[in-house]
Write a structure and sequence with these properties.
By secondary structure, this protein is mostly beta strands. It is 14% helix and 39% strand. It contains 6 helices and 35 strands. Strands 26, 28, 29, 31, 32, 33, 34 and 35 form an 8-stranded antiparallel beta sheet that branches. A 6-stranded mixed beta sheet has the order 4-1-5-8-6-7. The structure holds zinc ion. Zinc ion binds next to loops.
Length: 447
């Protein structure tokens, strides 16, 4: 097996041949990346920001003498029907076994040229390589000016890359590709300055290690870099248990985490695929950015964010604490489960009345008055997590609400939909009185 050094032709402002909406420099760079991705450690990618022809790079190249060099190009012609690949070597040389195998493969993939291997003495790079004693060839991967060749190049890119590798005895088994694939440039990285708040957290990223602490809904991690999160630390508000779903390990729960608790692994190359946080003293909301999926919905305290069993890494997380939580009792549905107050509490669009709700205030002072069907106004005073506002089992609608607390709220009323956001000042009411209209849902937001 050889070690392959890949030079992408043109570049550094020289776009090479142009045709069918593509440029040669760009196309051969994409192919070079795939050869590297599939060939792994057996391939070295030459600096793709350079133009090795223009800057005489081959004469200055220092690589082991037993490595093989391939330079990638695409042909072009004024005749759109000219097509086919071929391999160019130094004119005075005989093709070696790599040249022969490569030419056979390429001419099968891109038929059209009668000479599969052409010796030339008038090209700079084959001459420079020969002068240095390098094992070198330049391959033309079909004509960029020919529709069929370009279509083959684009749609069969990985097959082409594998064929090139095979010509040099390099396997392209997926084993050569690292777990979770290659990290890529670009994308978006988290802030690199420590930030602490009510809820602070940091993540351990592939390649980057620990990122700076982030807080209260800021992004920790990265997006668009194919960079997995391997561990997370949570410095929460009061007691919290964290469960992470780890590659190969499955769910692992960390009870009563502190700032120092590492949830996940370090140095084992194992992605986290999902996370669940259960806070006792505050109610958490969190969402994750997952490979191939993007951002999830906000998960509520005790729910998993992320997917399990699909082998997809988490790449970023955002965590914050909800103002408080609310559980709604809905007509025909009963109690529908505790949710962060920032969500829609109740069900809209199905003509279902909100019959009751319970608020866990998590230390906030919240006062509630409600106007109930047949009962009229009921003053619940300062509520606790056990206060039931409304009725259960009596099939009565809530018609109007009045809140006092450090937040705004709105309600969804039968027939007319959401009201405007209103300050919970203990005086303003939302809903109707005497019109027999049900409230269907409530929503809260920070003032
Ligand atoms: Zn070229």
């Amino acid at each position: 097996m050889a070690h392959l050094y890949v030079i992408a032709g043109h570049g550094a402002g020289d776009r090479g041949a142009v045709g069918n909406g593509y440029t040669e420099a760009e196309r051969v760079r994409v192919l070079a990346s795939r050869i590297k991705a599939l060939g792994g450690n057996n391939v070295t990618l030459g600096d793709m920001s350079r133009n090795y022809y223009a800057d005489n790079g081959i004469s200055k190249l220092s690589i082991p003498k037993d490595w093989c060099i391939i330079e990638l190009h695409m042909d072009s012609s004024v005749s759109a029907s000219a097509k086919g690949a071929h391999v160019i070597i130094k004119g005075s040389y005989n093709p070696d076994s790599h040249d022969i195998e490569l030419a056979n493969f390429l001419c099968n993939m891109f038929p059209g040229r009668s000479n599969k291997i052409v010796g030339r003495n008038d090209l700079a790079n084959p001459n420079r390589a020969a002068a240095k004693g390098f094992n070198y060839r330049l391959a033309e991967f079909g004509f960029i000016s020919n529709k069929t060749d370009v279509s083959t190049f684009n749609s069969r890119m990985d097959e082409i890359a594998k064929g090139v590798l095979s010509a040099f005895g390099i396997g392209s088994a997926s084993a050569s590709e690292p777990v979770d694939g290659y990290v890529v440039n670009g994308g978006k990285s988290q802030n690199n300055k420590d930030e602490f708040g009510d809820v602070s957290y940091r993540v351990h990223m592939r390649g980057n290690g620990w990122g700076a602490w982030q807080c209260d809904g800021e992004m920790a991690g990265s997006t668009g870099q194919n960079r997995r999160i391997e561990a997370i630390c949570l410095d929460g508000d009061g007691k919290a248990d964290v469960t992470v779903h780890i590659k190969d390990t499955g769910d692992k729960e960390y009870k009563g985490v502190t700032k120092q608790t590492v949830c996940g692994t370090i140095g084992e190359g194992k992605r986290i695929e999902a996370i669940k946080i259960v806070g006792t003293d505050c109610y958490y909301m969190y969402r994750v950015h997952q490979k191939n999926i993007g951002w999830s919905e906000w998960a509520n305290n005790g729910e998993f964010a992320g997917t399990i069993g699909e082998g997809l890494q988490l790449e970023a997380v955002e965590i914050k604490k909800a103002m408080f939580s609310v559980n709604a009792h809905v007509q025909n549905k009963g109690w529908i489960g505790e949710r962060a107050a920032e969500n829609v509490i109740g069900i809209t669009g199905h003509a279902l009345r909100l019959e009751a709700f319970k608020i866990n205030p998590y230390g906030k002072e919240i006062k509630v008055k409600a106007h109930l069907q047949t009962d009229g106004w009921v003053d619940y005073g300062t509520i606790t997590k056990d206060t039931i506002i409304g009725t259960v089992g009596e099939s009565k609608r809530i018609e109007c609400l009045c809140f006092s607390g450090d937040f705004d709220y709105r309600v969804h009323v039968q027939g007319s939909g959401w009201t405007d956001w209103t300050k919970a000042d203990g005086v303003s009411t939302l809903g109707t009185v005497g019109q027999a209209l049900r409230i269907e849902a409530i929503q809260f937001r920070e003032r």
